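Tutorial handout. Part one gives the primary structure; part two gives the three-dimensional structure as tokens.
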Amino acid sequence: AVDNALFSEGAQEARRDAANVRTRLELPDRYFLYVGRLVEAKGVFELLDAYAKLEESLRSIIGLVFVGGGKARSQLESRAAPVVPGKIRFVGFVQKEQLPAYYALCDALIFPTHSDPWGLVVNEAMASGSAIVTTDVAGCAADLVENGGNGFVVASKSVTPLADAMQN
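Part two.
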């Protein structure tokens, strides 16, 4: 279901030209990444709250990028506005062929879902060489994420453990 070659090769290409890719896509030098629908059930509000809980010194150097659209976008943008320091960017929908660049340059993909049968974005991010932070209810967590190895698995709907994993 995931074209591993597309993500692996696209990520390698993006890393070779990282400065230009960051400029073209208007990405922070460092950032956490969310890819998916912007709806409450995907845990996007917990992600935003976890980012806001990070130490100010960390938020001043690592941004948060949301890729995707959904009905929660305007509420997320309103709640993100007072988070200072920090750079929070809402990219909107991105074609699959463009995703490897986002995955390749992030510090980690954050998949804070409340319930998901699998979570293909985790496969995509891993094929791109990204670290993962996901919740224990993501179907892929048990099979793909080695807690403390290639990423972290935290309890769903738990802001503090999510923030702690992001700080690691």
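Part three, for discussion. The beta strands are 31-35, 63-67, 88-92, 108-111, 132-135, 151-154. The first helix runs from residue 4 to 16.
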